[in-house]
Structure formats: structure tokens, C-alpha cells
Amino acid sequence: MNLRKNLKNFVLVILLVPILAACGPQKIDVALTTYKITLSQDSARAGDIIFHVHNDAADLKHEFVIFKTDLPEDQLPTNAEGAVDEEGAGITHIDEVEVEAGKSADLAVNLAAGNYVLICNINDNNEMHYMHGMHVAFTVK
């Protein structure tokens, strides 16, 4: 009798572990280098996501900015200086974090299904990081 009860509990635990694990926040690693953003995955399920952002650049501060948009990643609205206009048409600013060279930061967000673009919007000595290709598309399902 005890063996049957223990087996039943074991099967229940085995079935629940993946479900409970899926309920926690998703973690995505982000590497920022000189004019490039690299993600550990290019999509996630809707809900809580923690972006673990590491600035691998030796001497440049970067920022990690999230926009919800259906625009192509390289066609976001820009201002006269070439930075993305964070209040421009066709984009919704979600959140952002600045990361000093060699440092890391976490950005926790709750994202709905849709298309996103992740960028660095720093203007460093008139070198617009976005214009140099520091952007990547991201999909939430």
C-alpha cells in the first residue's frame, strides 16, 4: 500500500516540476559589445522575463532599451542626431538599463506577445550606437 502511494506521489511530482518551472521568470543572457547585441535566444513566451545584460566592451558604456514595435529593427524613428526617438511614431518604449563597461545589470520586464526591438541608444562622441548596428529583433509568443 505504501509503495503504491509513494509511486503515485512520485509520478505527481515528476509531472508538476516542468509546469512549476515554466511559471517562473524566463532568463535571457544579453552580451553588449562594441556596436553589437547578442542574445542567448531571440524569442520567449509572454510573461515575466529577466534580461541579464553584460557589457563586454572594454571602454564604452552601453544601454539596453526595449521597444515594442512592428517596424524593422533598423528602421526605428530617429532624431536629428541619429538617436532613436524614444517617443517616435510606431514604437512603444518599454524599459531600459545603462551598463558601464565590464559590468552587468538585470532588467526585469513583463512582456506581452508581439514584436520587439532591443537597442543601445547611446550617443558617444557623436557615434550613435544604434546607427552603427547596435539593435536586434526579439519576438514574444
Task: State the end-to-end distance.
Answer: 45 Å
Radius of gyration: 20 Å
Query: The CATH topology, please?
Result: Immunoglobulin-like
Biggest sheet: strand arrangement = 3-11-8-5-6
Please outline the helices and strands.
Layout: H1 2-23, E1 26-33, E2 36-39, E3 43-44, E4 47-55, E5 62-69, E6 91-99, E7 104-111, E8 114-119, E9 123-124, E10 127-128, E11 135-140
Provide a descriptive summary of the structure in words.
Helix content is 16%, strand content 45%. With 141 residues, the chain is α+β, with helices and mostly antiparallel strands. It has a single domain, classed as Sandwich (Immunoglobulin-like). The strands form three sheets. The protein has a five-stranded mixed sheet with strand order 3-11-8-5-6, with no helix packed on it. A hairpin with a 2-residue loop joins strand 9 and strand 10 (127-128).
Write a short abstract of this structure:
By secondary structure, this protein is of the alpha+beta class.
Q: What are the key terms here?
A:
141 residues, alpha+beta, Immunoglobulin-like, four-stranded mixed beta sheet
